[in-house]
Amino acid sequence: MAPQTRRERLAGEARPSSSGLTPAKPGAVEVQRRRVGSGWTSRRISIYASRVYFLLIMLQIPLFRVPCRAGTCTTPIQVTSSQLVSNDIFPAAVVKAMLYPGATVSSLTKSKTFPSWNDLFDMYNLTEAKNASAVVDLQRLEILAGSYFCVAGALIGIINPGRMTLFGTLLIIWGMVKEALFGKPVNSDLTQSTHVYPTILIALICAFMSITYNVKKTARSSTPVSIAKPLISSAKSKLK
């Protein structure tokens, strides 16, 4: 077998390796994409935050205290239920299904008994909600609309977390702040005045953290940039 010439040896060295990786050009600077690591990603945080927010709403943890058609409401579900019952928007069974988890927790902590399905409206004073004046709700439209968004966002957030819970929570907070700053509506009865509980801060944090930000999609959209700088020797050889 004849020995390889110098030209054949150079051709063999320039041939690409079996791994399929091509060597970088001399003087080339490559900007590669950074891999998004696993762990506490934005998606996972939003899922846990939306679940905590769901429990806060469905278990009826008191967030505030405002006058409503049912008398005094302390949770967004109570505000929403009084409005649904008074306007006959949904059947009574749907409203009772929303109220039952919170009523169960309240009954177990107080009397260690399960509430009766037929007595739910009596527990929340919703039997006379149809005859109550609508002025109470119209004076606090921000709290009413925010309660709708909070309940709907908590239910939808179990499947797909979004911005609805944050929007509803901010509306409720703005309604409370507006009433505290401007003093409207004026209420001489201190027992019917509005109050905010510290738990609304937990709801606000959970609503904010339930918003997802797709980091992987942003990383995929950024294509690698290659900046090649010719060598001085190659530039001189072209001029020759």
Protein described:
There is one protein chain. The protein has eleven helices and five strands; from the N terminus they run H-E-H-E-E-H-H-H-H-H-H-E-H-H-E-H. The chain is mainly alpha-helical and 240 residues long. The strands form two sheets. Strands 3-2-4 form a three-stranded antiparallel sheet, covered by helices on one side. A hairpin with a 2-residue loop joins strand 2 and strand 3. The longest helix has 19 residues. About 8% of the residues have low confidence.
Structure at a glance:
The protein is mostly helical and 240 residues long.
List the helices and strands and how they pair.
Layout: H1 6-14, E1 28-31, H2 42-58, E2 64-68, E3 71-73, H3 76-87, H4 92-110, H5 120-123, H6 135-138, H7 141-157, H8 164-182, E4 195-196, H9 199-209, H10 215-221, E5 225-228, H11 232-239
Antiparallel strand pairs: 1-5, 2-3, 2-4
Helix pairs in contact: 2-7, 2-9, 3-4, 3-7, 7-8, 8-9
Order of SSEs, N→C? HEHEEHHHHHHEHHEH
Rg from alpha-carbon coordinates: 32 Å
Helix content bin: 40-55%
The shape is elongated
How confident overall, as mean pLDDT? 77
SS elements, strand count:
5
Largest sheet: 3 strands, antiparallel
Total tally of structural domains: 1
- Cross-sheet strand order for the largest sheet: 3-2-4
- How many individual helices? 11
Derived from helix and strand composition plus strand pairing, the structural class reads: mainly alpha
